Please model this.
Amino acid sequence: MPSLAQDLSAPDAADEAPARPTGWRYLARRLAADHWALTGGAVVILTCLVALLAPILTRALGVDPYSYHLDLLDPSGVPRGPLGGVSTAHPLGVEPQTGRDLLAIVIEGTRTSLSIGLGATALSMAVAIVLGLSAGYLGGWWDALVSRLTDITLGFPHLVLMIAISAIIPATAPRVPVMILIIGLLGWPSTARVLRSRTLAIRNRTFVQASRAMGAGELRILTTQVLPNLVATIIVFTTISIPGRITAEAALSFLGVGVAPPTPSWGRTIGSAITWVATDPWYLLVPGMALFLVTLAFNLFGDGLRDALDPRTGEHR
Model:
């Protein structure tokens, strides 16, 4: 089965495919036929709303991610009661050793993790678009330079490099922008390579040559002829890149070089929960399930969007 990069970087098959209806209504109809994509999209929208309204939600629910409730813990620091201290006041239980409300931590952690995931994706896609399009369209020495830079960046062990960079950043620096920069600047190569390949094919198409023959400038051709034909590829790669950026933040926070306490983050909460898994497995289950469900939702929606935007796929999956 061909990979996604191979699938999206092979325009010849698309050129030979019969013409199909286009437009937002057609796209919406195809997405509506994919129930998994709709489910994933609904979870994505809900997650975004939770992230945007996190402070309002925590106040409305009467929970606070920063308040300690030591009276809810036994002498060893484990929450009293079943399922990590679940009660009407704390629907998902409390955090070991501090007694902080776990529901509030997950809600505020959604805001932190999603902000980093979306910000890093936007940065990496911007870099990939600029480098991939310019390399594929201009060619020559610039193409060779960008290709070698892409190979070098792909060759680095990203997790090790991110840990090293995060470790040397001053503790007083705002961690969320730092995480966005680190993850975003290391996440562009694979997308840039696909966009370069697509641009190489599009620049030789008849409509591009016709625009050039009519006297259109290179920048105008690039922005009005080449870039619009890459919108579907860019949208698909954006949606399927977000889960990877979220899990990268979770990995860094899990390893202790991500978001600094007491700022809630799914990765940092999972990292803290590892030491309590034997006595309070509920503490690990709640943020772990949140990370799993959101990652799955983005992947389902991205896969459905890819099929809806690809004219070679049929009406039904």
Q: What stands out?
A: The chain has 15 helices and no strands.
